[in-house]
Structure formats: structure tokens, C-alpha cells
Write a structure and sequence with these properties.
The protein is of the alpha/beta class. It is built from 27 helices and 31 strands. The strands form seven sheets. A seven-stranded mixed β-sheet has the order 5-4-22-21-20-6-7, covered by helices on one side. The chain has a six-stranded mixed β-sheet with strand order 13-12-17-16-14-15. Helix 18 (about 500-510) links the parallel strand 20 (about 485-490) and strand 21 (about 515-520). Helix 4 (about 120-130) packs parallel to helix 19 (about 565-575) and helix 5 (about 150-155) packs across helix 15 (about 395-410). The longest helix is centred in the N-terminal third of the chain and has 19 residues, at about 90-105. It is globular. Residues about 305-320 and about 435-440 have low confidence and may be disordered. The protein binds ligand MGD (2 copies) and molybdenum atom. Molybdenum atom binds near residues 117 and 146.
Length: about 800
């Protein structure tokens, strides 16, 4: 394609560049090897020509003067910002030697592979770690508190993850006859207009609103969708589980739930022993339940064998009755135990949340909750989409359980226009090859036993392939149960973005024998590396992308000096570390990933993208009915009981509360009134800026212009009480640390909460400590602790701390 010597390359945005998890189709205009323009691809099914500011600013990004374009070796002390250029060969030799030395002396698990959010390096960092022999790939956020906990929670009680349906699996999208428009969508702790996370495109919701979809928004801050919603539930951060329980209370007690789904597809009818509080694994009552509440259980066959009732009697039995009451069960050894149904136990839990109590916990008006619950339950179909604040609380699993119960009990799961089960297109998994699954797995299952957190936490054993971050950080200091000596950092801003308590991370990095980092720019974090390798943007590489739909390729459009794609860097090192490494070329690796689609990399590249046909098991709707979810091919869900588990058998096995419930997070005015006296404001952080991706892009002129300063949003009443004017600098502080931000006085936040931007540092300031690009001045993560992960190792208190604000006098600094 192209004219006047301009090549137009059709490709897919994914890391690095705009960041984000979306997969927008773009047209890159290349002249003489330079990017002169970039635009959205109007034919692409994903974004249909639309594009964000960060993608449009790629012309200022690719050849930016700050880009690292050659491998660098640190010459001064860590944090002094002194480097020398070396060749790729020298750099790779040095890394190989240093990492092999650690492997020999301490074992391969002593090197941690640190990554950040969902980019295409997910598989490649696993490939490298596993080839080296380490199971310790660490998603470097406390409690792995982004996305992973949601996925693992959904696997726990539902067997699969799901997202709202915008017809993304259907080539004709909204016009496809199979698609139904969601009548209502709950946008729950989600700012999708700015964020496009989880492989969903923000404008899809707007597309559907234009067609008539109504919005309920759960958010403490007046977001884009809150301002356009039918009901805005302005919730106190960290109380989402209580709100969901309140909504369930309305829906169950007003009989607005889907009896058919409850009966057929949940484990509500399973029996729970009153003496131990545990579920009898195999026995459940359904329409064949005995009316006189007496069951004999054969332990071998797992079936109820003798009924104290006749066939005719149970046929008249009303399901509601069968789901309630006490039941005597005689076990095979003759013991008689009294049981109740899981549904009864579940309802008892839900009934602990009457709306006046929920109002007190959440600060949302009880009437609004009732109206929102009724609207959602009476809309057919209806969908819910949650965002990262749901992961960012220690009780993430019970919270997800409560919210997911809403879509299950209203029969909105796995149906058009509801919450659809998200599967990789054509079952080709390019992100992120978990543990032993996929083309690049662990070399030896046994090595996984040394992964940090595997022994302690059920979800890490069962669903995650990650090292538990908080435990890893501690282990760097204690050396127990084994020493940690090296780190490979690829996409993790430990001192400027993903790392909470960044000063602790700094001390940890100082302790390590060897650190290699791969990045596109110098950052506060990379100043602690011994070797720094230059990575490519998405425009400079080939790649495969399948994160739900479509399956698509990333196509190389240009080259920048000596920068290399992450996949090539990791591939080269993986071959050096593992004499049995399976692949000879990167393309072979791509082909292997694409195998389930029946296409090779070249074939897919020619097509651009592909959406699985309707009859493909990776295409949505009614999959639980068709037997497409369970390995045995039977209808139902991929859980231990084959049902959507209202009562979680995994959680029971892990010694955790099997029912959904609210737990007050550790640092709130309710849990810590002592701290709240000194730090009376709720500190929320990290609402996304459309101009930035986390700690990136502060050096891109167009983007910095859009959002020039680290901003804290303060309600006018609160600002007035502190004598703070709009645009004035303030200190935010709490018992952990402080940072300086610019006040934006605005009624979009409640008077009792401030919202601070995250990911800040100043690329224009000095690299060397104590400045470290001004990161200690403005990084709000200095006010957020590590080590407060939830009971199952997941989730962390990130969006609900406490703080106070003080007007800055312009003199103090925060260095050191
Ligand atoms: N432009 C841009 N896009 C991004 C990113 C970026 O940095 N920049 N980051 C990407 C990443 S890794 C992620 S995880 C996603 C996150 O994207 P989202 O999931 O949308 O997350 P946030 O923007 O952090 O928060 C969403 C909304 O939740 C509200 N909120 C805060 N605390 C609570 C709470 O306790 N309960 C409820 N109900 N609401 C709350 C906030 O006010 C905000 O409006 O975005 C991705 N997309
Ligand atoms: N206070 C607070 N902190 C938060 C959050 C919050 O809401 N509040 N959100 C958290 C969340 S959800 C997440 S996921 C994390 C994200 O945190 P990170 O994933 O660490 O995000 P970034 O700062 O965007 O990226 C880190 C580094 O990776 C580099 N990089 C980007 N793309 C590539 C690539 O393709 N290859 C290579 N080699 N390098 C690349 C960037 O230049 C940058 O220096 O932040 C978390 N931090
Ligand atoms: Mo994230």
C-alpha cells in the first residue's frame, strides 16, 4: 500500500508504545524508515478507526531523544545514573555469566523475573525464567492485585472468567442477529472510557448506550459513566462486597432471581453438614429431594440411595421447599448428620446485609441501592463489568464472589448481552502462558514447588503461575527459605509505578548481587540495574496477540538503531540458559502458539486478524449448556462440583470462608479510627489518565501538555477547610510517607476522599540520587504499604488508605 514513497503498514497496538491492554488496529505511515503519521484502522473490528492520544503520539515516541538505543552497563554506583555503551554481544555475555554464577551457587529460583501489567512480554518473560530454571515470575504489585485475583476468583467459584458482551466475538457485532443489546450495564469501579482494560474497548459501552443501554455506575468519583448513569452509587472505597450483598438481599427477598439457573446450574441444593460446616461433596437435592427431609447417602457411589418418599410425592415438590430446611443424612458408616442446603447457608449470609446496614457501611443511600438492584434484576439481558479497584482490596475473592453471584442468580451468565465467558480466540493462548500450559511451559513440574507463595496460598497453587510479591520482597531481606540474589526487570516500575512502599523496594534492589533491566527509557527503577537493554516499540516488532478476540499479529513497520523486540532478547538468552531449548527461530515459536487456530504466523499476518467461527468452542453463548467448559465434556462449569458455586468448595479446602461477604479493609476510618484521627481523609489513587500509561509518557510533549502535573483531586469544602486553592501545591502525608501534588479543587470527589494520580516522576529532573528524577517528591506509592495481602495471598489495600493534606510552603523537599 502507499503513495509518494509512503508505506502504510497495517498492525496492532500492543506494548510498547501506548501501553494499554487493548488491541487497536492501526495504519502506520512510514517514509524513509521514519514514522510520519499513525491513524486508526477503519476496517479493524476492534476500534473501527478510533484511536487514543497515546497511540496518536507515537510519532513523538519512537525517535524520542531520551530513548535507550544501545545496551548500557552501569559504571557508577547504583542510583548514580552513570552508564557506558556496550555491544549486544558483551551485554548478553555478561548477563549470561552473572546469572549462571547465581544459578550455580544458590539455585535458579534465586533469580526473580519481575514484570508489570499485561503486555506481550508475559509469555516471553515466562519463557526466559523457565529456560533459566526459575519458577519465580513475579507480577510485581502487592497481592498480585491487578486482574490475576479476579481471574483466579472467577476460576474458584465459576471455573472461568467472563466479560460484558459487546458482540466482540461476532464479525457483524451489534448488527449480528445473535447479539442482544444489554438493557443495563453496571460499570463497577471501572473507568473504561479512559482505560480500555482487560481487552475491552471503552467506546463499546458508548456504542451500546447510543443504542439504548442504561448505566448503573458504582464509583466514589464522578467518572464519565457516572455522569451519564441512571443510578450513580457513590460508594466508600473498599466496601463493594457489602454493596453487592445488599443488592443480592433485594434481589433474593423480592424474588427477582432466576430460579431455573439457581436450580440447574448452582450448587445451592448441595447439602452442608451442620456439625462441621462442610459440604457433602457428592450429595445434592434437586427436584428428587425427599419431602420428609431424609436422605441416605452411599459414600461409594456418591448417590443418595434410599428415599423416604415415593416418586409421586417428589414430583409435586416445590423447588423452593427442597432448597430449604434441615435434612437428615445417614452416612455409609451409619452415622446420622443433620444438614442444610448451601442455598440456605448462602441466604443466611445475604440476610446479614439489610439495606440500612449496607448504607452505613458503603455510604450509599439505601433507596438508590434498592432501585439499582431492581433495575439490574429486571433488565434482560444485563451485564456487569468491574475494574481494578475490585482486585485492590485484601478480600478480593469474597468481593468477586458477591458481584459474580449477581450475574449468576439473575441468569445473565453466558448469554448474549450478558456476561460472556471469555476464551482466547481459537484457543490460541499467547498471553500469558501460565505454568505448565501452552507451548512454553515449566521444564519440570517439580521446580514449581519452590515458587514463592505456592505452599502458603491455595490460589497460587491452583490458579496462579506467579510468585507472591509481598513474600518475595520480604525474602530478599530474610534470605528464608532460600536467598534471592538476582533480578530480571522487564516492564516493572518498582520505584515509580507498580512498587508500593518504593523506598523498601529500593533497599531490596540495593541488596541484590545482579540486576538486568529491559526498557525503552531511563526511569528511576532502571537506575538500579547493572545492565540495561534497549527494547522496541510495537512498531518495531513482529508478534502474536490473542487476548480474547480477535487473533491478530503485530507487524514490524520500522527499526530504531539497536533496539530489539523483547521476544528476541528473551529468546536469545533462553537458548543460552537451556541447552534443550525447543525452538530455533522466533517464528517457530509464533507458529506453535498459533497451532490451535490452524494458521501459521505468516498466514495470519496476511489476513491481519481472525475471529473464530460461531460453532468454534472459543465462540460464546450457552457454553455451559453445550458442555464446552468442562474437561469431561459434560454440561456445567469447570468447578469441583460442576456448578456455579454459591458455596465455594475450593475456599473450604483452603480453610477460608466459602461464602461471599464483606471484610473491612485494614486502613479505613472504620477499621482504624485511631489513624483516622490524624489522617482523616480517605486516600484513593490511580484513576487512569487518558494521557498516560502508569509511569510512562511524562516525557512525550503532546501527552504531558494534556496532563502536566501530578494532581490530587480535592472537594471544594475540604479544600476550603484547609485553605487550599485550585492549582496550589500540597503535601499528602500519612504514617508511611508523603508526596507533593497539585491541588485540583473539584466536586467530582466526595468531601471525605481525595484522589491522587499515580506513577509520577519527572523525566526532566536529574537521574542521580537523591533526586532520582524527582520520584521521591511525587510518587504517591510512598503512602501505600506492602505486606497487607489478603488471606488467600491476593489483593491489597491500594485504593483505600488514609491521609491528610497540608499546603506546601514551596521550600521542603522529600529526598533521600
Ligand atoms: N490510559 C490508561 N489506561 C490504562 C492504564 C493507564 O495507566 N492509563 N492502566 C491499565 C491497567 S494496568 C489497569 S489495571 C486498568 C484499570 O482500569 P480501571 O479498572 O478502569 O481502573 P481505575 O481507573 O483505577 O479505577 C476505575 C474507577 O474505579 C473508581 N474506584 C476507586 N476505588 C474504588 C472502590 O473501592 N470501589 C469502586 N466501586 N470504585 C472505585 C475510580 O474512581 C475510577 O473511576 O487500566 C488500564 N488502562
Ligand atoms: N498508587 C497506585 N499505584 C498503582 C496503581 C494504582 O491504581 N494506584 N495501579 C497498579 C496497576 S493496576 C498496575 S498493572 C501497575 C502497572 O505498573 P507497570 O506495569 O510497572 O507500569 P509502567 O509504569 O507503565 O511500566 C513500567 C516500565 O515498563 C516499561 N515498558 C513498557 N512497555 C514495555 C515493553 O513492551 N517492553 C519493555 N521491556 N518495557 C516496557 C516502561 O517504559 C516502564 O518503565 O501499576 C500499579 N500501580
Ligand atoms: Mo493493572
Amino acid at each position: 500500500m502507499g503513495s509518494k514513497n509512503i508505506d502504510i503498514v497495517r498492525t496492532t497496538t500492543w506494548s510498547a508504545g501506548p501501553g494499554c491492554h487493548g488491541g487497536c488496529g492501526v495504519l502506520a505511515h512510514i517514509k524513509d524508515g521514519e514514522l510520519i503519521k499513525i491513524e486508526g484502522d477503519p476496517d479493524h473490528p476492534w476500534n473501527q478507526g478510533r484511536l487514543c492520544a497515546r497511540a496518536l503520539a507515537m510519532t513523538q515516541y519512537v525517535k524520542h531523544e531520551d530513548r535507550i538505543t544501545r545496551p548500557l552497563k552501569r559504571v557508577g554506583k547504583r542510583g548514580q545514573g552513570k552508564w557506558e555503551e556496550i555491544s549486544w554481544e558483551e551485554a548478553l555475555d555478561y548477563i549470561e555469566k552473572k546469572m549462571k554464577d547465581i544459578r550455580e551457587e544458590y539455585g535458579p529460583e534465586s533469580v526473580i523475573f519481575s514484570m508489570g501489567t499485561g503486555r506481550d512480554i508475559g509469555p516471553w518473560i515466562c519463557m526466559l525464567a523457565y529456560a533459566f530454571g526459575s519458577p519465580n515470575v513475579m507480577f510485581s504489585l502487592s497481592g498480585s492485585a491487578c486482574y490475576g485475583p479476579r481471574l483466579s476468583a472467577c476460576n474458584t467459584f465459576q471455573g472461568c472468567y467472563c466479560v460484558f458482551d459487546a458482540g466482540q466475538w461476532l464479525p457483524k457485532r451489534y448488527e449480528d442477529p445473535k447479539f442482544k443489546l444489554p438493557e443495563t450495564i453496571i460499570i463497577w469501579g471501572y473507568n473504561i472510557a479512559a482505560t480500555c482494560p482487560d481487552n475491552l474497548f471503552g467506546h463499546w459501552v458508548i456504542d451500546m448506550m447510543k443504542r439504548g443501554t442504561k448505566i448503573i455506575c458504582v464509583d466514589p468519583r464522578l467518572s464519565f459513566f457516572a455522569s451519564r448513569s441512571k443510578h450513580w452509587l457513590q460508594i466508600r472505597p473498599g466496601t463493594d462486597a457489602a454493596l453487592a450483598m445488599g443488592m443480592l438481599n433485594v434481589i433474593i427477598n423480592e424474588d427477582l432471581y432466576d430460579h431455573d439457573f439457581l436450580e440447574k446450574w448452582t450448587n445451592g441444593a448441595h447439602l452442608m453438614r451442620m456439625d462441621t460446616g462442610k459440604l457433602l461433596r457428592e450429595v445434592h437435592l434437586d427436584k428428587t429431594g425427599a419431602p420428609d427431609n431424609f436422605v441416605v447417602w452411599d459414600e461409594n457411589s456418591g448417590e443418595p440411595v434410599i428415599w423416604h418418599s415415593s416418586e409421586t410425592e417428589f414430583k409435586t415438590l416445590n423447588v423452593k421447599a427442597a432448597f430449604s430446611g434441615l435434612w437428615d443424612v445417614i452416612l455409609a458408616d451409619g452415622t446420622r448428620v443433620t444438614c442444610r442446603t448451601a442455598w440456605d447457608a448462602y441466604r443466611e449470609e445475604v440476610n446479614k446485609y439489610p439495606l440500612d446496614k449496607v448504607q452505613e457501611i458503603t455510604r450509599v443511600d439505601a433507596d438508590e441501592i434498592r432501585k439499582a438492584a431492581r433495575l439490574y434484576a429486571t433488565s434482560k439481558p444485563a451485564a456487569i463489568q468491574w475494574g481494578v479497584p475490585i482486585d485492590m482490596t485484601p478480600a478480593v475473592t469474597p468481593t468477586c464472589h458477591a458481584i459474580a453471584s449477581l450475574w449468576a442468580l439473575t441468569g445473565n451468565l453466558d448469554i448474549p448481552g450478558g456476561n460472556v465467558i471469555a476464551k482466547f480466540a481459537f484457543d490460541a493462548v499467547s498471553y500469558a502462558l501460565p505454568g505448565a500450559v501452552g507451548p512454553i511451559g515449566l521444564k519440570d513440574k517439580k521446580m514449581d514447588a519452590k515458587r514463592v507463595g505456592v505452599k502458603e496460598y491455595g490460589p497460587y497453587r491452583t490458579f496462579h503461575w506467579r510468585a507472591q510479591t509481598d513474600m518475595t520482597l520480604d525474602q530478599i531481606f530474610t534470605g528464608k527459605p532460600y536467598p534471592i540474589k538476582g533480578m530480571w526487570i522487564q516492564t516493572a516500575g518498582l520505584l515509580n509505578g507498580i512498587g508500593l512502599d518504593p523506598k523498601k523496594w529500593k533497599k531490596a534492589l540495593e541488596k541484590l548481587d545482579f540486576i538486568a533491566a529491559v526498557d525503552l527509557f531511563h526511569t528511576p527503577t532502571t537506575q538500579y540495574a547493572d545492565i540495561l537493554l534497549p527494547a522496541s516499540t510495537f512498531l518495531e516488532k513482529n508478534g502474536v496477540r490473542s487476548w480474547w478476540v480477535p487473533l491478530q499479529t503485530i507487524n514490524k513497520a520500522m527499526k530504531v538503531d539497536q533496539c530489539r523486540p523483547d521476544v528476541e532478547i528473551n529468546f536469545e538468552l533462553a537458548r543460552r540458559f537451556d541447552p534443550d531449548f525447543k525452538y530455533d527461530t522466533v517464528n517457530e515459536l509464533f507458529d506453535e502458539i498459533l497451532k490451535p487456530s490452524g494458521m501459521t504466523f505468516e498466514q495470519l499476518q496476511k489476513k491481519g486478524w481472525a475471529i473464530p467461527p460461531e460453532d468454534h468452542p472459543s465462540s460464546p453463548y450457552h457454553r455451559h449448556e453445550k458442555g464446552q467448559l468442562r474437561p469431561d465434556g459434560k454440561p456445567g462449569f469447570k468447578t469441583p462440583t460442576g456448578k456455579f458455586e454459591l458455596y465455594s468448595t475450593y475456599r473450604e479446602e483452603w480453610g477460608l470462608d466459602p461464602l461471599p461477604h464483606h471484610e473491612e479493609p485494614p486502613f479505613t476510618p472504620v477499621s482504624r479510627p485511631d489513624l483516622a484521627k490524624e489522617y482523616p481523609l480517605i486516600l484513593s489513587t490511580g484513576r487512569r489518565s487518558p494521557a498516560y500509561f502508569h509511569s510512562e509518557h511524562r516525557n512525550i510533549p503532546w501527552l504531558r501538555q494534556l496532563d502536566p502535573d501530578p494532581v490530587v483531586e480535592i472537594h471544594p469544602q475540604t479544600a476550603a477547610a484547609h485553605d487550599i486553592g485550585n492549582g496550589e501545591w500540597v503535601w499528602l502525608e500519612n504514617w508511611l510517607g508523603r508526596c507533593k501534588m497539585k491541588a485540583k479543587v473539584t466536586p467530582i470527589v466526595p468531601p471525605w476522599m481525595v484522589m491522587a494520580a499515580h506513577g509520577w516522576w519527572y523525566p526532566e529532573k536529574k537521574a542521580a540520587e537523591p533526586s532520582l528524577y524527582g520520584v521521591w517528591e511525587c510518587n504517591v506509592n510512598q503512602l501505600i504499604p506492602m505486606g497487607n495481602q489478603g488471606k488467600d495471598g491476593q489483593g491489597a489495600p491500594i485504593k483505600h488508605l488514609l491521609c491528610r493534606i497540608i499546603k506546601a510552603n514551596g521550600k521542603e523537599t522529600n529526598n533521600g
